[in-house]
Amino acid sequence: MHDHSGHSHGLAIDIHAHFFGQSYLDLFNEQSAKYATEYRSTTDGWYFKSPIAAITLLLESIMWLFVTLALFLDTGEVNWIYVVITAIVITTSIRAAEATLKLIGRFAPEAKEEG
Asked: CA-to-CA distance for 25 and 32, rounded, in angstroms?
């Protein structure tokens, strides 16, 4: 919150929720099928499946690797926490991309037979 002098008098907290109506979710599934992306609602919760997210995570992990290498080259010191985090993120993203691509390949023939 700010007064007219521009001074801050505390932190503003943004509390909100996102609502997607069923018609939007139906349209999402209809339009996103060509990208192997979908929305599902089960008794366990709501799920979005997106291979784009897995590939984006992989690209982000590669960027993290370059940042870690640049930090090493700039300072000449190894920050082991960055090395460990980079290794975890890269391993996780490779596994996520691999699993996503396997699932797309596994279910693609079924989709072609139904259509």
From this structure: 10
Measured between alpha carbons, how far is 55 from 74 in angstroms, rounded to an integer? 29
For the stretch 34-63, pLDDT in tens is 777 777 888 887 777 777 777 888 888 888
Q: Using CA atoms in the order 31, 37, 39, 43, what is the torsion angle rounded to 10 degrees?
A: 150
CA atoms within a 13 Å half-sphere pointing along the CA-CB vector of 4: 0
pTM: predicted TM-score of the whole model, two decimal places = 0.48
| Burial bucket for residue 71 (CB in 10 Å: 0-12, 13-18, 19+) | middle
Spatial neighbors of 37 by CB under 8 A, at least 6 apart, are 48, 49, 50, 51, 52
**What is the H or E stretch that residue 40 is in?**
strand 38-42
